[in-house]
Amino acid sequence: MLDAFFDIEDERRIHRLYALYCHHFAHGAPQDWVSLFTPDGVFAKLSASQGGLGTSAQTVEGHAALLEMTKGRREMFQGQVRHQQTDIVVLPGEEVDTARGQSLILVTDWRSGQGRLAALGSCTADFRRTKQGWRFARIELSALPKPAAQAVT
Predict the structure, then answer these.
(1) Pairwise CA distance, residues 70 & 36, whole Å
(2) Which pTM value belongs to this model?
């Protein structure tokens, strides 16, 4: 991983995708958020939130399903939940015009007044270069604590 470098301009564009993912989600822009995915893009939340966010494990695929999911989250979060992705690492993919990303996630919840840490976890993402540029092909979120079956001993 340490020696697997990626074209700096492509990496910069993928970093922007990560940032826009958080901004569009936080500011209730579902159409803009969905546009960051390939038409067959997948969002997979591997575990239910433990911090009171009210979200469950789920996998959705395709623009229509992604749009429905993010509209529901917009209503649930009331513009008061923020997502951050940090420590982003972008690596070349196994095929031309693909890349793989890893990051840590942090979610804060401000719905009840003073903000609180609502979730921590990790994220893996697969990217594909399209005619419109780089897009998420798949993103997987795994929150802490991991269910016992996933926990590393």
Answers:
(1) 13
(2) 0.86
